[in-house]
Amino acid sequence: MPEIILIGEPMAMFIADYVGNLEDVEKFTRSLAGAEVNVCIGLKRLGYDVSYVTKLGVDPFGKYIKNFLVKEGIDTSYITFDERFPTAFQIKGKTEVGDPEVVYFRRGTAASHITKEDIDKIDLEGVRHIHITGIPPALSESCKEATYELINRAKEKGLFITFDPNLRPALWPSKEEMVRVINDIASKCHMVLPGVAEGLTLTGSDDPNEIADFYLELGVKTVIVKTGDKGAFVKTQEEAYTVPGFKVERVVDTVGAGDGFAVGIISGLLENLTLKEAVVRGNAIGSLQVMVPGDNEGLPNRDKLQQYLEKGSVK
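Above: the chain's sequence. Below: its structure in token form.
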């Protein structure tokens, strides 16, 4: 029985083998991408039973993704194949400075046709945690309805819900709708994990304290604002503090760092760590992830995480 359930869109990913403009690159390495699937992989590597809800196309990308998840030990009971629509994929550049160029091919995909009915088939018995991101509601109206259905069912069961906004402006009809829907979803969750830039878009402020106050006033119990290499700012109705980040000698790619942070937070909560201890773990996993080129290759198993926590140094 899964302990944690996530819903999302996985993508086949092709990473450039060398630095250059994507139109000039001739060789790529295949991998797997997707915010929610990254969290699934990270949690499974820490020993948790995780179930992933999505739809895949009946194509080589879909089959590759399904096989990848099976090898990782992730429960695929709620993954279905759709013969009408394709699996999403992306092409990712390689860079020596800053974030790489990423081109997405994800409109009209199988995952964008997830429905409320798919959510109603999920057995929540034994589930301990639900993690939501802002990506599924951006994919389509039916995905948005499915996201709300999962939240509603989870709340009926008394399950703890974490929410990472994971803004994807290009997928939304307008910035105004994105902000409205994301903040409405946030108001229904127990913990919200925005980044500073996301906070500016969603609340009008890039001040971590003001971002946190915005969501606390919406009824969120805990807000953790990711502040990049500085770490994270934590605020509840009772307390507020900053948890410093870990020193990283060389940042290779920041993609997936926020997903690694979520892995640390969720696993920490499930293990009854203090909130501060969970944030330290989140910072640690996020820093491990930025030191590799892929979206999830840096997510550690339990032994590697423990070794890093013992040897890693904070800023």
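The chain has one domain: 4-311.
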